[in-house]
Amino acid sequence: MNILGIETSCDDTAISIVKDGQTIKSNIIASQVHMHEKYGGIIPEIASREHFLTIIPSIQEALNESGLKHNEIDSIAVTNGPGLAGSLLVGVNAAKGLAMAWDKPVIPINHLEGHIYSGWLDNKNPDKEVGFPLICLIASGGHTEMVLMKDHLSYEIIGKTRDDAAGEAFDKTARVLRLGFPGGPEIQREAQNAEGTIKPFPRPEIKNSLDFSFSGLKTAVVNRAIKEQIYPHSNSNYPNKNTVTEYAFAFQEAIVDTMIRNVSRALKNIAAKGVLLGGGVAANSRLREKMSQTLSVPVIVPKPYLCTDNGAMIASAAYYRIQANGTSNVFDMDVIPNLKLD
Question: Which among 257, 279, 256 is positioned nearest to 136, based on CA atoms?
Fold first, then answer.
């Protein structure tokens, strides 16, 4: 079964064709990073307009790369939430148009479910190799949620952020350090050369809860930077290279330790057979390494390029939905920017 996956929930136009939920035939991503980096964050109007310009060429490129014709596509899957309303509308309307033109079923997919099913790509089988239940940690620029996956398509939210998402905290800290956007890769690159010489940042904790809170950590970085006169920026208080490196390391360690701590606590109360990471923050090498070293259960981590938003994860999730529920044309689907995972 060949499924065309369309993902436009934020700033990347991502199109992929996946066979049988696991084998990636093509994976096209039209990035908008260069358009948003000067603002230090995503501008929704710019994102939706760029999706409109790139989605049809990206779909054609995905078909060309796969070597398939449109009549060899069995179903079309598209993210209908959560995400930016304007961006989601471009993807959903393109999917509906293709489904009508090609006479193919169209399937709406939750973006968070897509990140979970990125763990099944590249011919992996976590359900068979590790087994259910799994604790899934989804961490990205817009989301930080811990999900108990009891079986295919069966989820329970057991922890979530109460304020900033982990990726958002990375971006805001990168701005304080005069690093680029997105902040996660920039901070990881700087942290690799640190000696760990500065005082650690706090590990935020919500008592009697598995929820996350990263706004206080972000504030701690800002307050220390102000106290040490490296922020706000000016010619006289521009942070030097060593300071940036040490701040990046200390901040990254705080994020990583906080996430590992909450997952470890969940494992004490839930007999999960493994932990699955997903979302852009899951591409962080320190998180991947430390999580695997610390936990007593197997840790399933997609390749870094499959952690960030991509169409393959949407196609994979759709395959398992089709296996469970069959196909049906839902041309009346709408975008749901605050769609929940259930």
Answer: 279
For tokens 């521009």, the residue is: 238
Strand 154-160 and strand 144-151: pairing?
antiparallel
Domain ranges of the chain: 2-119+305-325, 130-301
The CATH superfamily of 130-301 is ATPase, nucleotide binding domain (3.30.420.40)
Element (H, E) at 59: helix 44-66
Q: How far is CA 85 from CA 123, 296, 317, 319, in A?
A: 32, 40, 21, 25
Instruction: Specify which residues 3 forms β-bridges with.
Output: 18, 75
Q: What homologous superfamily does CATH list for 2-119+305-325?
A: ATPase, nucleotide binding domain (3.30.420.40)
Structure-token pair, residue 295 = 């936990």
Residues 6+ apart with CB under 8 A from 159: 145, 146, 209, 210, 211, 212, 262, 266
pLDDT tens, residue by residue, 92-116: 999 999 999 999 999 999 999 999 9
Q: The sheet that has 13-19: what strands, in order across it? A: 23-30, 13-19, 2-7, 75-81, 106-110
| Type of residue found at 5 | G
Gap between the Cα atoms of 81 and 89, Å rounded? 10
Measured CA to CA, the distance from residue 248 to residue 256 in angstroms comes to: 12
Hey, is 4 helix, strand or coil? Answer: strand
| Cβ 231 vs Cβ 259: under 8 Å | no
Determine the Cα–Cα distance for residues 125 and 258; give it in Å rounded to an integer. Answer: 28
> pLDDT, tens digit, for every residue of 251-304?
999 999 999 999 999 999 999 999 999 999 999 999 999 999 999 999 999 999
